[in-house]
Amino acid sequence: MPDACRSCGAGPLQVFLDLGTTPLADAFVSPERVHEPEPAFPLEVAFCGACSLVQILHEVPPEQLFVDNYLYFSSFSDHLLGHSRDHALGLVESRGLGPESLVVELASNDGYLLRNFVERGIPVLGIDPAPEPAAAAEAAGVPTLREFFGDDLARELRSRGTVADVIVANNVMAHVPDLNGFVEGMAILLADDGVVTVENPYVRDLVDHGEFDTIYHEHHCYYSCTAVDALVRRHGMFLNDVEYFPELHGGTLRWWVGKHEDVSDTARAYLEAERSTGVTSFGYYHDFADRVARIKAELLDLLRGLRARGNRIAAYGAAAKGSTLLNYVGIGTDLLDFVVDRNVHKQGLLMPGVHVPIRDPAALLEEQPDHVLLLAWNFKDEIVRQQAEYLARGGRFIVPVPVPAVL
Question: Most buried among 11, 258, 299, 365, by the most CB within 10 A?
């Protein structure tokens, strides 16, 4: 357990939230192994007063997180596919990408983003250690290295003449325990006039909207612009621009990073806003635990009340955030009949810790539960559109954050 910051090395870190000891959020359980013990680890969150990075304290080896038990496939979300396609097409146009270019994606998953470049004849390289998503990417025509990315791999690639015009790192920098090795690797691999785009949920939204369920062992860090700016400058790069996507993963920022300082007014405004609102000080986080405890109590009261009145309750989204929420709040088979998810790789398995069975979304119409708890609330609008028939038959959705409520 570190007592110094993963980014700047300063310490001691200031703990502001303890979610207890929880199983790994993506370690789904097969029914035949339900009686075997599940590994569980402390989940505490702390703030670095020196560089403003929010981070968990306990580090699980990445081989336990992202290899055999990692069943997340980006292509099962229509919203994410559309967002990624827009980003890819924007990069093609703004960077003038063509057959002589190279786009590298770190944590390329199942090729959901890079295939947009492949379709246009633009060379790509995906880097992802998870076997099943990497195999899916290769089947879609996306060359993929099944490796963890860091400065050693970047030096090896560079020695072979691999230089990236664009590096994309979406929803991966939170997953990296060795932040400095990861960012140094990007600096090594990037062309002098190249660009890095990084997407991650915004820590300000996490705190302001009570999104505690986005905290799990895969997510080592939770970023502000201030923390990103300090991190990339340490490796000779600069945070030059910022974009905000409020509907993606509960509020996501895209950071544009390059080797030459050209900071936009937007980036400056974000950095100043974080200073003025206190995101860069511990006081901003000190009451978060109390607000999370209130969400837990209110959600339990709501679900128990519905159950006591004879309501059947299911959930939507066998996502990592759902695992955190169910295990921290204490929602098991006594309150939920089942969870549904479009990811066929998860169907037939059980949620970590609480062992609620995972089924195909068709079960919502087959069983017609009275209420469905939206564990994947970050895709609320997409799910509601998909489940129009369930709603037409009188079904109701429950959102857990920022305040538990029946839609």
Answer: 299
